[in-house]
Amino acid sequence: MKVLTEKIRVRGTVQGVGFRPTVYRLAKACGIEGEVGNDGEGVWILAAGSKNSLDLFVNRLKIEKPPLATIESIARNIVQNQRNFTGFQIVKSLNNNIKTEIVPDAATCPECLAETLNPLSRWYNYPFTNCTHCGPRLSIIKASPYDRCNTSMSAFRMCPKCDREYRDIENRRFHAQPISCPDCGPIVWLEGGETGIIGDSDTGKVFDLVASLILEGNIVAIKGLGGIHLACDATNEVAVDRLRKRKKRYDKPFALMAGNIEIIREYCEVNLQEEELLKSSAAPIVLLQKKIGSQIAEKVAPNLDTLGFMLPYTPLHHLILKQLDRPIVLTSANLSEEPQCIDNQQARNKLSKIADSLLLHDREIVNRLDDSVVRVVGEKLQTLRRARGYAPAPLKLPRGFDFNVDILAMGSQLKNTFCLLKDGKAILSQHLGNLENAAAMNAYQETLKLYLNLFDRQPQTIAIDLHPEYLSTKLGREIAENKQLKLQPIQHHHAHIAACLAENNIALNSSPILGIALDGLGWGEKGQIWGGEFMLVDYRSYQRLATFKPVAMVGGEKAISQPWRNTYAHLMAGFNWQELEDKYKDLEIIQFLNKQPITLLNQLIKKGINSPLASSCGRLFDAVAGAIDVCRSESSYEGQAAIEMETLALNNLEENEPYPFTIGKLKEENLLYIEPRSMWRSLLKDLQQNRSKGIISAKFHRGLAKIIVAMVNKIFLERNIDNKTVALTGGVFQNRILLQLVTADLERQEITVLTPSKIPSNDGGLSLGQAVIAAARSM
Ligand SMILES: [Zn+2]
Ligand SMILES: [Zn+2]
Q: In Å, how far are 182, 218, 312 from 200, measured between CA atoms?
């Protein structure tokens, strides 16, 4: 039998995930001799054996790769000068500069779960069981390289048994940095309330107690993987209400966790794709369709038809949830809008008035990681928040970006993430939240420092948003100034669209593509506020071709949280008040507006005092919401009005005709725009005829989708655009009705639709767009 030697090159996520031990095991099983090692490009293998056994080996590697590995490519080349090997070896990295990749935190694997639940296992009832295929990663890393001494596990000395497993290449825990057991690892305890402190002498008892406290209607703070949560019985109306009041979070939906998928099915519809997401190693919160008559407390997700569910993703969560036949609320532990607590002392200080008891442990959470949020829209994954389980996995960039460049993009103000770009890959930070909050801004700076160290970056260019008041922009300017780096200011909606193109693998030098970025607000040119933009875009530049009607935001910032202000401004932009009063004086909305200080508001609008014009699609949603009394006086979280309208519209789409919009031209700027005047006329008429909120919402959604498609066609025609592709992005396109209506209509005309999937279409994806634009411009 002829022996061949091949050099096999494996690229992808193949470091720090137990790849070399798997190669070793499979080589032995297939009768292959040779060696395997890590280098800057991934994993290399020298494999000697018969043609058949080599083929078998490579095929099995593809199938039996470790759970957390992803293989991008396997290249095989015959080596001419054959060497004689004896057996198969793992070779130490020759170059010490090679830094093992940092993979995202991963949910408990089936083997570890089985051990945790097995009374005969040494991991029985142990809340920190993990192995190479699962457990904490980014959440515990302090510095690079990813070795135990650089994680918060350095505080725990391995016992001889753990040490043996750690060193045993045949063991599932070979080089599992966070390995620990009840003899040597972190401990949990319960404190606060009437119980005093319950220690870990019998861990099982602690979890029994937590479960019964929850069943009795208490609120328990639970320190988990990337942060501390607040938990209560999700079917207990009183407990959920108490949690809302104590947390001062009034409407924003709470996430839920259930012990297994069968329990989730009692409350929600779960299709195959959603089940896979729930059970994936990222274990995100998945938004699911609520079943009619669901027994979940109404206040878990007021006025919504979806629930956000996740499955237990650490042994600690499993040990609590296995005792509960119903879901629990598991929401980040903080006061409204602050970042999630991660520290024990901080939890005692801040949560004493919110939680009745605290389940804490002594493993430090180094990096705060919120739970990721995803959903499936028409068979496609949509990411709403990218954090635990997904960050910091790199995103491979399209063709053309693989040139020598090192870029840092600072991201947005709300839903902030930052992005590092190098070697044709982009690394997005986890969701860091609203930077206006001092604690979030601190975390942003800390996390930025950590990532620059972990991934060994010395950025030459800093990309920032045009908005002068974004704290990320200010910090970016400061860094650029201090280190004398190039600064690259980037328009908000251009960045949104570029991020969508990059994720959809549009090559660097492709011809321009029409992008539609619909969101709340973003800085435009000359200090304008934009938020409903049709742009012809490539990675370097954009041409603004159409927009939404610019309407005053009366009261500035206040217009963002008080939808009625937009209703008023929109009506004033289309009609004169006398005419409205004459024609519609019986309408409740007109009476409501009449009670407002109209004279003053009119002066503000007329003189442009604290009432900047904004061409925003988000504000148009608010305006309509205000008219039909959805969050009219106040919305308590970003996008609430639009999200509630989406829910209202869902069951009314079929039989109701779309509202008419028209296309006009802004003379000064010579720009097409969407004119909602005729929509308002029909809407007011519907209000007179007492049509329901649901019907009006449906007609609005359908009308908006129709005019967006009409605008696309008009642009294609007028501009003679051959590339019949449209990118749909921006926070507003998280609205599944609008997204699906527009997509279906465009695809019916054989227009290709690109949407973001793995990155959020909201501002959480902005930094990716900034990074690719800055890279393209630096060529
Ligand atoms: Zn495991
Ligand atoms: Zn141990």
A: 9, 21, 21
